[in-house]
Amino acid sequence: MIFKSYSIRILVLLFAGVLFVGCSSDDDNQDDPTDDTTGGTDDDGGSTDDDLEVARQASLDVLNGGDTITWKIATAFLETASGNLELTGNFNIEDDEFIFSGTNLEWRPANDVRTDATTADETLRDYYRSPIETSITFEPESSSELTALDGRISFSIADDGSLSAVIRPLPKGDGDLLLTLTQKTEADYAAPPAAGLNFTFDVTLLAPGYMGDGNGGLIGSYSENSLFLVHRDDTQSDGTSNPERILKYNFTDGTQTENLFFQSDFVTKRLNIIDDQLIAFGGQFANTYDIALGADPVSSFNHGLVLTRFGLAVQDDNAFIVGTDFTATANSNVTRYNYLTDALEVLGTLPAARFHAGTELINNKLYVFGGRDDFSGEIAFTESFIYDVDTGGTSTFDLPEPAFNTYAARVENLIYVAYETRVEAGEPGTFDDDRNINFGVYDTLDGSFTVLADNLEDSDERSTIHAITIFNGKLYVVYGNPITDENDVQIYSAPIE
């Protein structure tokens, strides 16, 4: 959610509190021995303070079950000047979790909600949030009303144990989110499709030039109802540089828009969207465009890294990059790049070098899948990594097969992975291996990896996946063989819900 300052409200409340104390001090009977200031008693002589504590503990037991309970949103409405907008079932509502433990709350908002919206569609914000940890406190003299985040979140427990919440975005001009919550069960978590992936053709991209070996990036925008693809187009050089090429495919009217920006950069490109800005992160530059496209980037930042076939995942205003200087032999760094300040910070280093390794981020854990230890290497790995952004610790897991190129896309607790395996078709090290495409799902809850069946045509030796993303309940893949036919790159999609 969007939070800004509530300082005016807080000052008013503090001022009211000072007046209240001042008035109380004028009470001529403040020393009256009959004035009980040590806690009330009920008619039977028992302490009402004790009764309140018992009732409060009962409420905490409702929230956390004596240990930990995860709640989800059952219904959601956004208050607006023209009435309430129902958001129940939206992707950025379904993925929220409220985890109560003792008097602590971890709120996992995941995909954010735009609270200054006037229509339900406008609330589908292109922004992924990190978990928020806070404490919960009872309102004075209440055993059923609680607050968190300095009053930005209010919870109310009804007599029947049902739970409702109000999330107050800042500033006050934005609408409040009115929620009812229910306990999350095992059946509520996202699960891999039992029948596998049934892809259907969506669109042939405008002639893309060379896109081999994971050089491009793909992302969907809810605000634009569009897919965006970025890559370096070596077929449209102006004699001094090969352009950064962005294609926009609009689902509403079926149109494609091409945007070229001529700049000398390495071949690998990744995409991110924050509201109305599209950020293309390359091996040397981070370029920020207006999402409408049609012009050069509004800013271009030379980040000073020397990267190719790197992994990238996003959270809040940060990109987390997995890669290293490809001219050196070194293990891959995890580097955080802030889009607002252009600040770069190396957070840690993986136990090995990784190129061509699909990367995703869920709940402050960075997942890096397979790949190679050299960007042009002929050795692929099953070994994959989990880097904890909070602690800096690293753990490992394995894919079912060595994966030369991997691509990752998250949805709730799942990460969909497209990965390429190869069969030697000639002399070792030559560019003639048979490339085979595979799909699977990694569940971040239990660390399981489920291999998925798919119906993509994979009979030739060169066709492969070039990028993936998840958008509107579907897995989108860029698939084809641009090496022998520059027009043979197409977008397919498969439902995953």
Count of individual helical segments: 3
Largest sheet: 8 strands, antiparallel, barrel
Distance between the termini: 25 Å
Unreliable residue stretches: 1-46
Strand content: 35-45%
Tell me briefly what this model is.
The chain is mainly β and 497 residues long.
Polypeptide structure, described:
The chain is mostly beta strands and 497 residues long. 8% of the residues lie in helices and 44% in strands. The protein contains 3 helices and 35 strands. The protein has helices at residues 7-25, 48-64, 91-94; strands at residues 68-80, 83-86, 97-101, 104-108, 111-113, 124-128, 132-138, 145-148, 153-157, 163-167, 177-183, 200-204, 217-221, 226-232, 243-250, 256-262, 269-274, 277-282, 285-290, 299-302, 311-315, 318-323, 333-338, 344-349, 358-362, 365-369, 381-388, 394-403, 405-411, 414-423, 434-443, 449-452, 464-471, 474-480, 489-495. The radius of gyration is 27 Å and the shape is globular.
